[in-house]
Amino acid sequence: MLKELLTEKDQKEFVKGIEVLDERCKKDYGNVFVECEQKQREEILIKLDKEAAKFPPNLWGIVLVEKPAPITFFRRLKNLTLMGYFTSEKIGKEVFRYNPVPGPFKGEVEYSGENAWSGD
């Protein structure tokens, strides 16, 4: 996913962010992130979420400030995690219900003159 979505520079920054996360986990819990207990991983992620700068205000993807702060490692990690979850085949098939057109197609429907919008 990283190679598909991030530039080479951003990929290197992301890997550096993982290294910094592992160092912090070693300092706080004595293990790298993936070897920490679930409760410890939750604690560090909540801390990082509170510490990380929020995304700049935007409207339909257009940033509304002239010089936004760079996206932090944690924001990028969270964004990629959520994207991977919500776009996975398993979740698409087993959790979400996709119905591109609500209801079946009916090519011929009887019309008796009633108002189609309000039913009056």
Sum this structure up briefly:
With 120 residues, this protein is mainly α. Helix content is 50%, strand content 3%.
Tell me what the structure shows.
- This protein has a two-stranded antiparallel ribbon with strand order 1-2.
- Helix 2 crosses helix 4 (73-86).
- It has helices spanning 2-5, 8-29, 38-51, 73-86, 89-94; strands at 58-59, 62-63.
- Helix content is 50%, strand content 3%.
- It is mainly α.
- The protein has a domain at 6-61 and 70-94.
Secondary structure layout:
Layout: H1 2-5, H2 8-29, H3 38-51, E1 58-59, E2 62-63, H4 73-86, H5 89-94
Antiparallel strand pairs: 1-2
Helix pairs in contact: 2-4
Keywords:
two-stranded antiparallel sheet, 2 strands, 120 residues
Task: Estimate the strand proportion.
Answer: under 5%
Globular, elongated, flat, extended or rod-shaped: what is the shape?
elongated
String of helices and strands = HHHEEHH
Low-confidence segments: none
N- and C-termini, Cα separation: 53 Å
**Counting H and I runs of at least 4 residues, what is the number of helices?**
5
Taking all Cα atoms into account, the compactness measure Rg is 23 Å
Number of E strands? 2
User: Helical percent range?
Assistant: 40-55%
